[in-house]
Amino acid sequence: MKKSHQLIKMKKKRIHRNRIIVLFLVLFFIGSLTFIQVKLNNASFSDSQKVLHEKNEKLKKVKSNNKRLKISVKELKDKDYIQKWIRSKYFYSKNGDTIYNFGSN
């Protein structure tokens, strides 16, 4: 009787020990998955931040270009500016302008 009681006690201890081992393994597995997921999220967040920074830089350039183009459109609507630009670009003159030729070196 004593031996069977000891065997039952040992069996219960073994079962209890196995349950604790399985519990720790499950917790370790869940912890590992959580750690991996956090690392992947950090990497994804870092990549997103880089893309956001690049897009913001591109947006600044586009806004600057847009501002420059709006100024050009405003200037092109001014007749005096157009006349000055055509005269300088294509060497045109107004009536009554005196033209001087300078020799080239």
From TrEMBL:
Q: What biological process terms from GO does the record include?
A: cell division
The chain's coiled-coil residues are 52-79
Q: Which UniProt keywords apply?
A: Coiled coil, Membrane, Transmembrane, Transmembrane helix
Membrane spanning residue stretches = 20-38
Highest taxon listed in the record's lineage:
Bacteria
> Pfam families of this UniProt entry?
DivIC (PF04977)
Listed name of the protein? Septum formation initiator
Organism, per UniProt?
Answer: Xylocopilactobacillus apis
